[in-house]
Every structure is written in C-alpha cells, then in structure tokens.
What does this fold into?
Amino acid sequence: MNIFLNSTMAVGIALAVVSCSAPESAEAPASEDVESDPQTEVSAEPVEPTSFEMDAITCWDLTTTSEEEQAFAATLLYGYAAGAAGANAQTSDGMEASIGAAFEYCDENPDATALSAFAQAEG
It folds into this structure.
C-alpha cells in the first residue's frame, strides 16, 4: 500500500511539473538544421481510445491490477469522487488518507464498486 501511495504522489508531482512552463528566455530557439531522431519521434498513428464505465470497476478489479494501473485508476477515481462531492480544495495528506481508506475498504469489500469505496472515503 505504501508503494501505491508513493506512486500516487509521483503522479501528482508529475502533473504539477508538467503544468509549469519554462520562461520564454529559457526555451531553445527553433532550428531547421536539427535532424530528428527516429527513436524520439511521435507516431502519427492514432491510439484507439479506451472506454469504460466508472461504476463498473470493482474493488477486486482495482486491487488485483499492477501498481502502475492502480495508481492511475486511484487518481482517476479519487478525482471523480472528490468532484462529485464538491471538494474543490485538495491536499496531499488528504489525498493519501482518502486513497488509503478506499483501498482498506476495497480489501474488506472486494465485490463493492471502487467508486463506492472512494465515495465513502470522501464522505
């Protein structure tokens, strides 16, 4: 569980870092003489979107996936439940506590929906 919470914090920190932009003076000027590296090029092929229903994810589904998938799903479910509850202000301690409580609920109730676990953790 501790690894999961650290992963969740890493996701939050990564989002904060990505949302920060470098000052214009720190940006490298564009150059047409630079060759592109084929290993770093982004594929032009579209990625098939994934579709799922939030209330169809069970606690068992959530707790039996890889740590990376758990971190992604928990962040998504946490945000969804917090938004539904009208909780606009978030703290890292509050997020950790809510996600921890949701996972404890899921451990005890594997057939419950993961969304209900996060909703009760927010409540």
Remarks:
- The two ends are 21 Å apart (CA to CA).
- The chain is about 55% helix and 0% strand.
- The longest helix spans residues 2-19.
